[in-house]
Amino acid sequence: MASHDVPIGSSQVSLAALNERSREIFRSIVESYLTTGEPVGSRNLSRILPITLSPASVRNVMSDLEHLGLVFAPHTSAGRLPTELGLRFFVDALMQVGDLTEENRRNIEAQVVGAGSGKSVEAVLTEASQMLSGLTRSAGVVLTAKANARLKHIEFVRLEPERALAVLVGEDGQVENRVLNVPAGLPTSALIEAANFLNAHIRGKTLSDLRAEIEATLAQGQAELDQLTQKIIAAGLASWSGGETDARQLIVRGHANLLEDLHALEDLERVRSLFDALETQRGVIDLLGRAEGGDGVRIFIGSENKLFSLSGSSTIVAPYRDSAGRIVGVIGVIGPTRLNYARIIPMVDYTARVVSRLLSGAGH
User: Fold this and answer.
1) In the chain, is it the N or the C terminus that has fewer CB atoms within a 10 Å radius of its CB?
2) Is the pLDDT of residue 5 over 50?
């Protein structure tokens, strides 16, 4: 179900490189880390392993695992922690992804669908990310294309002889402004005609729907509009559909969860650098945009993406679709690499499906 950016290839570790004993010890190190965040030593491991091994035998295997790059010893401790490569290997090769309980499914469904009744798409997405944040104790993230917002009204206002302001009002009350270059000597009547024409077609459509319909209408010559008016319409649509500014919107909920479980000063530094990354948004948008490439859950661990190499964070996201079946955004969580992957992956996957179903069923 999960795919990722950095494949474990022949140059790296294969499952065959680990015998049963090594696998059990490695699994125990990772599971202990995911539960406690602390390094685990050979004595403790020999107690919790399902097989009987002396601490000395466990130490030998730990040093083999270290040699393979799967675990490391933090400077202050004789215990071991998984490396990022180790975590990736665990997620891909050893982890059993849990299935959601019926109760989990019902809760997710109730919260997302409850949020959907009569509300904007953005409200649904915000609610869904808030819910994921609460369920996973990490930050919920949604990347959505602004072009998905349903439209209500368009106006053109002249600013200067060769510049006009295009104002777009969404059904959810969001207002977007863009400055357009217009031909010199353009009569005000052309601006009014352009706005009237668009408003006659606009209600309840998304920007991409509107654009496709207007382009088809103009191409078929059905619109009795002069050349100047057509130019303004084309310029207005082009500027809103992304144009020079970012056509994507990032919703992050539950930052505070990331502050709950800090063990040490370096944890605080890690979270601070993650907050910086989330504040600047550009990198997060690029990263999440890469997850729109295909179906299924995508997992990015630590420095597999430049964005989180400093903060040592993981992201688990899945794409969601609109009523036409197009992928229009991604939803998921960002948190420490110590996320409970087996539990969170199916939650993110199911939430993305519920959101897709709601967006396609609601046609709203």
Assistant:
1) N
2) no
